Amino acid sequence: MRHITTIFNLLIVFASIATCLPTTSSNATIPPQLFQDLEQLSRVVDIAYCVGSTGIFHPFTCASRCSDADFAGWELVDTFNTGPLMSDSCGYIVLDHGSGNDGQGRIIVAFRGTYSIANTIVDLSTVPQEYVPYSGGNASESRGEKKGKSGNGWRFWDRTEEENRENDGDKARTECRNCTVHTGFLTSWHNTRPFILPHLTRLKTQYPSYDLSLVGHSLGGAVAALAGLECEALGWEPTVTTFGEPRVGNAGLRDYIDDAFGEGRYRRVTHVDDPVPLLPLSEWGYRAHAGEVFIGKEELQPGVGDVWFCEGDEDRDCSAGAELDELQVEAEEQEVLAKRWGIPIPARLGLCVPGGDPLDWGRERYDFGDGDQVQVEL
């Protein structure tokens, strides 16, 4: 009975997050084209849940959304599944031979999330370890030259003045100074990189004009972040898009990610109802990085007016507006939440169905709607 009461209280805590977070903002809403791009990428990462269950097959077919019209002509390169453990990862690599309106080809890597991500964050071990970046030559040396764009009083990538005071002001870094990373997330990337980097090396040679796009959900978002840093060091200039990405490391790693990606090449999509971007806790030394795009509408599906850019690393008009440590909970629930965030799911069913697995907690929050009937609200 005590366990049932605790679970019920956890439900109340998570529900209260929505009341703490803002539903409107003075920040600039995203343009319609970016909205459509994010909608498509949300389906791309949703398809990754077919890996390990019903599968994805050449040229690009699956039991989920592979048959959508805008995926016509896509070519599956490979799927990867490093194993059943929490520190493992899975997903797929696919080629988009320029099916979009701009005709630009893309190499896309999609990283699948995990079930009960909040539990996984703790079970993987929140103990940080030193982050030592890959030394990739010119790509690393040029990081300090990249600057964020400004416009309409809104700075997508630049940190706020308060955040700038927290760092040493050295943008031209070729090493990650005082950087620590979530041990479990780094292990997941290390387990995954042998499956991905050989493919990307070959594909970047075969299709030198194709853009590289990395996309991930929840745990897959954390893996995509670390993969993005290594791909950036290799000079591939990836665009990284994550949905419900948890905090990856400390303030040092946050600054390093901010310096590595500019010009809108990192889109960290968060949702008003999702507490995962606030985990692991800031009290444990973890910090969110810049590039946040916030969905302020609780109900499905959002329109353009419900999604806005966030300023700096932790904009109070976005997910940072309801830090979990500010929630008014009893001491008993505080102790439980500190040990194990989220609600355990007793069975992993691994379903791959149109619209995604209904038992994957939190995944539906990033459903932008049917790709064939995207409603763009101006």
UniProtKB/TrEMBL annotation:
Outline the extent of the Fungal lipase-type domain. 108-281
Alphabetized UniProt keyword annotations? Hydrolase, Signal
Q: Which GO terms describe its biological process?
A: lipid metabolic process
Pfam families on file: Lipase_3
**InterPro entries of this UniProt entry?**
AB_hydrolase_fold, AB_hydrolase_lip/est, Fungal_lipase-type
One example of the protein's molecular function in GO is:
hydrolase activity
In terms of SUPFAM superfamilies, this protein maps to:
alpha/beta-Hydrolases
Q: May I ask which residue range the UniProt record assigns to the signal sequence?
A: 1-20
* Region called Disordered, residue ranges: 135-171
**UniProt cross-references to PANTHER family, sorted A to Z:** FUNGAL LIPASE-LIKE DOMAIN-CONTAINING PROTEIN-RELATED, TRIACYLGLYCEROL LIPASE, PUTATIVE (AFU_ORTHOLOGUE AFUA_6G06510)-RELATED
Please identify the protein, giving its name as recorded: Lipase A
Q: Species name for this entry? A: Lachnellula suecica
Q: What is the lineage of its organism?
A: Eukaryota, Fungi, Dikarya, Ascomycota, Pezizomycotina
Q: Which gene encodes it?
A: lipA
